[in-house]
Amino acid sequence: MKPTIIIGGGIIGLFTAYFLQKEGVEVLIIDKEDLKDNCSTGNAGMIVPSHIIPLAAPGMISKGISWMFSSKSPFYIHPRFDAKLLKWCLQFFKSANASHVERSIPFLKNLSLLSKALYQEFREEHPESAIALQEKGLMMIYQTEAIEKEEVEFAHLARKNGLEADILSPKDIGNIEPNLEVKARGAVLFPGDAHLDPGKLYGFLKDYLVKKGVTFFTNTEVKSFEKSGNKVNAIITNDGKIEAEKVILCGGSWSGELSKMLGFYLPMMGGKGYSFLQKNKPEIKQAAILTEMKVAVSPYGEHIRFGGTMEIAGTNQKININRVKGIFESINRYYPDFEAKFPEENKIWKGLRPCSPDGLPYIGFAPGFSNVLVNSGHSMMGVSLAPGSGKIISELHQQKDPVLELKGFEVGRFS
Ligand SMILES: Cc1cc2nc3c(=O)[nH]c(=O)nc-3n(C[C@H](O)[C@H](O)[C@H](O)COP(=O)(O)OP(=O)(O)OC[C@H]3O[C@@H](n4cnc5c(N)ncnc54)[C@H](O)[C@@H]3O)c2cc1C
Question: DSSP letters of 353-398?
Answer without folding.
Answer: EEE-TTS--EEEEPTT-SSEEEEE-BGGGHHHHHHHHHHHHHHHHT
